[in-house]
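All the exercises in this workshop are built on plain-text protein records. An example says more than a description, so a record of this kind follows:
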Amino acid sequence: MKHISKNNNTMAFAAIATLLIFVDLNTAYANSLTNLYQQSGLEFGGWINGGATYNANNPSDGFNGAVTFADRANRFQLNQLNLYLQRNVESEGTKWDIGGRFDFLFGTDAIYTQAFGISAFDENTGEPSDRGNWDLNLCCNSTRTYGIALPQAYLEAYMPLGNGLNIKAGHFYTPLGYETVPAPDNFFYTRAYILNSGEPFTHTGFLGSYTINQNWMVQGGATTGSATGGWDGGFDKQLDNWGGLANILWTSNDKRTLAQLGGTYGQTAVGEPWIMYSTVLQHWITPKTHMVLHHTHGWAANINLPGGIQNAAWYSINTHLTYDLLRDLSIGIRAERFHDRNGWRVFSPYRILSALNNKGVSYAGNIPFISAPADYYAVTLGMNWKPAKRLGIGWKSVRNISIRKNIRYDRADGIDMAFRPFDGRKDQFLFSLDATIPF
């Protein structure tokens, strides 16, 4: 019995020692991985954004007309669960540096962020076309609302040439315009027409950025993977259809004023030109008052329209004015006029068109979408509140939470015709509330 007990004690001691060594090795391995991750400069993060919009018209189709992103009436939307992995790249210095970024987005905003640079039907001929497979229909067709997008996937390099040159290669958000897709980067919950209908969301290709001096910066790029003028291209179609992008930015010495002029040039699948330019002026009137003036004008040749083959054009003027009322509370107003000369850029509901396949079937529903030559007007009042600052909340997960409240009025005036895109009405009022939690 003593011999058996002694053997058992020896075996138990050996098992405990082996376990301690295993735990120690795993801890060391985990620590080494953590150290390697930190030393690499990699950063993992993201945000969650969701909200609800009340439509005073109580539309029977459940959509807020031509409004995108917060497009569902009288219900909650999980707009964006966005995860990213990135390594920031230096923008100055004498050493080479390399990095990049990858974004994964799940939510109701995914359908507006996917690489739909190839339409379900060719813009010029009207023939069915293959939209490609970069991030379309990755999941969730059965929900008709939620989906997945991969809006950014690029490598970036810094080259110590002159004052320093940064080059992106891959799929990335456009540097043009003012508003953008990521929820935390916008003052308002809803987006302006100018973003969804007047400008590209993303590009596939190359983008170089060069800082000339403290006031001037230039950007130039080559775009591909698109049959819509270099807009929203993917990685598997139209890769021989190259276009161009240029952007000039000026900042005043006191950093209170920023001016930007840029544009794109590209072709459709049959070689017809597609041109767009964008100007943005930002100015801090006071340390608490910020003004933005944004103008976009676009043109495309020989588009297949209901009235026949025509050149299509659109333009918009958009203004923002925001004021920091308190350290944790800001208010703002946005006003816009969007001119859709040919009824080709704005659709209602836009989600139905975005989910259309080349058989004429939309995964977003059986509701018919409509468009017509029209002028769209929108005025939005908004408030941004960061409650953690005032309440003294130190919990990291909610420290930077932002709550936005919006009141928006939309109106459409048909050009030489009656047009009622808001569920049979010319106008609508929207009341929305959303929250963004970055992490």
About this structure: The longest strand covers residues 308-326. Residues 74 and 202 are 30 Å apart (CA to CA). Residues 1-8 have pLDDT under 50 and may be disordered. The helical segments are 2-40, 193-198, 350-354, 387-391.
